[in-house]
Amino acid sequence: MLADIITKIAFGEQESDHGFYPRPSIAGPERCLRSMVYWAMGTPPQPFPGRTMLVFSDGNWHAELTKDLLRRTAFQVHSEEMEVETPCGKGHIDGIVTDLLGIDRLLEIKSANHFSFERMWSGQMPADYLTQCALYMNGLQRMQPDLREGLLLIKSKNTSAFVEIRFSYSSDSDELALLEMVRSDGQVRPAAGVYPGITRKAWDRFGIVAEYAKRGELPMRPFEYGCDWPCGYCRWARSCWDGYEQEFADRGEAPVDDPAVRDMAVEYVSNARATKILEDRQEMLKGSIKGRLTELKAKAALYPEVRVLLDLRKRSSVDQTKIPASVLEAAKRITFSEVLTVREAKREQP
């Protein structure tokens, strides 16, 4: 009664496209360059799905709730949504936080799913978020040169855990340096990483987009066909992949003689051979272990260095012979995938 209308309401309330222009929120290196070129060329985008609009809304509410909690502490949160002029256009910061010693730091709040959150904690830094922070810091230091550090505060949307990435930035050297990471359960770890020329690279990227758009050309697709992220959330996915089957058919039929492809393919074949030997050994060991447990009428074996567990799991499948052909045809969906085959060439007999 309600679940099926919520996303429809969110879909209908999205604003019209504001057009392409440089801004901190889209300046990061992880954003798809091809989609930016489509945008810059004025290619009509598809509307965001209603579910995506809800994701955006959830992110905004996560930030507001987090700032509300911070206001109840001895830290001061101020300058919220203040407009800042950056090397990549105007942006609006989440705020500035002042600690008990009166030191100001940029505060940028983000949210992420559980898997992205854990990747960040394990050291896979969010380059887009850090670039946005560096641009804000660049603009803030024009007004407040003593503001040297920032806090990127990321909330897990699944567990409500937080991780804080503390960094410094110098507009003189245009360098962002990671300092420390703190998790909401009290874990602290040093964060290593320096990003030289971070705002200059962001501006150069907008220049690349402008050049492509001026020539009316598109960069290569950075993702494979059918990937859910980010293509599944991209407003230009339909334009990007339309005609892909014909585009692939138009590739040259003649084999290429490229040294780089040869070196990678030879390594691939060598690795595949070693992997096959290891997989065969693993399958043999698996069968032997299961057989021995069956002889012992056991489902588990526990040792100081290893645990062995045997489970019985159910799996359901669909018997297509019991489904009318018309129903199967109506439910059929055609997709494409690029299948790479690399195998060792047969050698001629002497």
Summarize the structure.
With 350 residues, this protein is an alpha+beta fold.
Give a structural overview.
The structure is a single chain. The chain is of the alpha+beta class and 350 residues long. It folds into two domains: 3-208, Trna Endonuclease, Chain: A, domain 1 (3-Layer(aba) Sandwich), CATH 3.40.1350; 259-297. Helices cover 39% and strands 18% of the residues. It contains ten helices and twelve strands. The strands form three sheets. Strands 1, 4, 5, 6, 7, 8, 9 and 10 form an eight-stranded mixed beta sheet that branches. A hairpin with a 4-residue loop joins strand 11 and strand 12 (307-309). Helix 1 packs across helix 3 (50-70) and helix 2 packs across helix 6. The longest helix is centred in the C-terminal third of the chain and has 37 residues, at 259-295. The termini are far apart.
CATH class of the largest domain: Alpha Beta
Distance between the termini: 76 Å
State the major sheet: 8 strands, mixed
The third-level CATH topology of the largest domain is Trna Endonuclease, Chain: A, domain 1
Overall pLDDT confidence: 89
- What structural category arises from helix and sheet content? alpha+beta
Number of helices: 10
* Radius of gyration, taken over Cα atoms and rounded to an integer in Å: 27 Å
Helix content: 25-40%
Q: Any guess at the CATH architecture of the largest domain?
A: 3-Layer(aba) Sandwich
Instruction: Please give the domain count.
Output: 2
What percentage of amino acids are in beta strands?
15-25%
SSE run: HHHEEEEEHHEEEEEHHHHEEH
Total E-strand runs = 12
**How does the overall form come out from the CA principal axes?**
globular
> Uncertain runs with pLDDT below 50, 5 residues or more?
none
